[in-house]
Amino acid sequence: MADLPRRLIAEALGTALLLAVVIGSGVMGERLAGGNAAIALLANTLATVGGLYVLIEVFGPLSGSHFNPAVSLVMVVRGVLPRSNLVPYIVVQLVGAMLGAWLVHLMFDMKVFELAAKVRSGTGQWIAEGVATFGLILVILRAPAARVAAMVAAYIGAAYWFTASTSFANPAAAFGRMFSDSFAGIAPASVPGFVVAEIAGAMMALWLHGRLEKSAVAATSSSGDPVSVNVVKEERHG
Amino acid sequence: MADLPRRLIAEALGTALLLAVVIGSGVMGERLAGGNAAIALLANTLATVGGLYVLIEVFGPLSGSHFNPAVSLVMVVRGVLPRSNLVPYIVVQLVGAMLGAWLVHLMFDMKVFELAAKVRSGTGQWIAEGVATFGLILVILRAPAARVAAMVAAYIGAAYWFTASTSFANPAAAFGRMFSDSFAGIAPASVPGFVVAEIAGAMMALWLHGRLEKSAVAATSSSGDPVSVNVVKEERHG
Amino acid sequence: MADLPRRLIAEALGTALLLAVVIGSGVMGERLAGGNAAIALLANTLATVGGLYVLIEVFGPLSGSHFNPAVSLVMVVRGVLPRSNLVPYIVVQLVGAMLGAWLVHLMFDMKVFELAAKVRSGTGQWIAEGVATFGLILVILRAPAARVAAMVAAYIGAAYWFTASTSFANPAAAFGRMFSDSFAGIAPASVPGFVVAEIAGAMMALWLHGRLEKSAVAATSSSGDPVSVNVVKEERHG
Amino acid sequence: MADLPRRLIAEALGTALLLAVVIGSGVMGERLAGGNAAIALLANTLATVGGLYVLIEVFGPLSGSHFNPAVSLVMVVRGVLPRSNLVPYIVVQLVGAMLGAWLVHLMFDMKVFELAAKVRSGTGQWIAEGVATFGLILVILRAPAARVAAMVAAYIGAAYWFTASTSFANPAAAFGRMFSDSFAGIAPASVPGFVVAEIAGAMMALWLHGRLEKSAVAATSSSGDPVSVNVVKEERHG
Known about the structure:
4 copies of one chain form a homotetramer. Chain A is mainly α. In chain A, 72% of the residues lie in helices and 0% in strands.
């Protein structure tokens, strides 16, 4: 990994571009879809899947491509990110997310500063955010390194549709979307509920992963190499 | 592979999340699509493809990621899954499928318990389910281990559209969808016909695979080409 | 590769399933799309891309996954397929294609035997089929073996939209689609024009590939880089 | 790499096919979408993603698959492309782009020569083109060689939606689209603004990449991890 200043540039830029993709494709989708919200969300989904895959690959070797305070928190708990890096990571993710929203407004000739009016609240929405973030963290923790970008992107694409909240699954995303009164926006008053649900979902995934890992470790401890383990493990079924 | 309790957790959770993806994206698609069923099914398809790919990768090293009694049955016949595991696998798959439907209802503020009214019946539908499951099992048996998740996901994405039944191809999916009176639902009275057709399709794939395999083994022994070697390795499971 | 009878089963079954995917997803798309042909073609495209990718992977180690007389012809010219196999390959491809159409009719409760009424003719359509097949053969000849399935599927997905003929690019597909009076159908009188254009496009790709290859070989002998080596290995087939 | 004449054939043919994909799928999308521009752009996006992925893979070993004067310029600055090749590369890219537009017109029975009337201008559009090309060049410079085709294709798919200009990100694409008065067209008077913005975005990406690279090199010398090694190897071009 790079030195801290450059890692923070990577996190800031990556989160800004991620929010630009999420919010910008929502604006474009809504403008062109003639009132059919499913078509707008399909466009929003495809852009997010493609953009997320690329951004994770592009910035991964520098900063780990978190773009998400819940992920950074989990990485601190797992010992992957030094504890002292947590606050700087979160700060640049939040700032980057806000700048991403503003970049969209500049491109689409909208007012740069605005706040979203769209209320996203209620038990169903909070359960959805908890489920969405639970799934995201589980995918990140269990994905082989070479496939994490593709798996996270595919997961978020599915979660845009199967969770009732369209799966923010990211406190920085909730923060950034607050600054755009468009398709992907969220009213400031709805953000705290989303963030709490997201952290709760992330913690549940951490706990479950710890439980599942134990058995995997036991099974792997005799062979060693990560790729063959799969094959070897399968052989043992026979 | 993990010990049995953890494998059962993986099968239960994986099947629950798979059904949540299938049913939830159907609910979201239908709500947003303004009456255009093709757009709803496109959304349903993309979510299922992404979700299925990720779930197979995430839980494969633990339980083999069956999420499907027809797959577990085939794996017992092939000697990959111990015969004594078959009933526990199927029980947690069915329970997980039902819980997945209920999770969707919680997220989308629907009544938790309900039964589907959508009749799916008739010769065309049964042939379709037979074809769908035949194809699924053939793909699973012939896919190289590293590509099985992507190939199964791509196959199901195609089968949602080319089979008249939108390709359940999974008795646990038929069971779980029975509990949701929404886009992806199936009336309880239609479930037995689907399950019989699915098992029949699976058995035909098993039989055909046995026939095709023989030749591959014979051919490989003289050629030694790396592609066919894969097939031979799989044979050892049997 | 397998012995001839099993290779012919693979070609017949693969072509039948390919046509079932192409025609079936067209039927489903047209039924659900409420008159919007772009949505029907999007569904048709996604199903074809997923299905083609999987079928090439599944049957490749057995028969080479041609499913296409133009491809088999090219492989004979390149020395990859024995000349004596050409007629049997083409016969089972044509029979399989027809059976694929009939399977769709059984699943969708349509009359089994019918002929398409949709005229596809004129200079623009023939140029389109020539371009479509030229591109397909160039992709097949230049793709690294490990990526050929993904590349062919992605190419056909693009060609469904950028060629005016929606890219049949396959005489067996033209033959099979003749038997279904649905979204993907083609009137029998239009088939010969398509087949001639396809063969012409394939021959142009063969010629161009020979020209491009020469330079690659010359360049590789001095550089030894692993990417070009691939090309050299393929040359040995010729 | 091949000798210069064959590399120029590859660049000309690749750029022609790329523009045929971009413009042709726009024509088809607009014809079929019944006035819903979002559906037309979805089709345009999917065709472009598939086509771009395949074209980069197919011609990469010959010419590097630039298809884009901004990319060729960056490669000259990085020392990957000899300075003397820059003008020939750009000339064949421009000619190829124009021929690609004309090929579409032949296939779709349109007048071969025409100029687009669609004005694409203003600060928002120029910022969008700068952002689009900045992202494209950053992806190209940072992608591992084995994934560059998939990453570029996924990036452009996202950028079609998140940038207000639908992301031309390529002076040759702007030039070629000028010759088609259809969905993907751009009025000749709007081309210079786009080209300036694209070059500016490319230069910013070059500068940023240089800054980020330094740290990666420093970090790698102590860690030796295979992901960062890639970055180091690329540095040698510079």
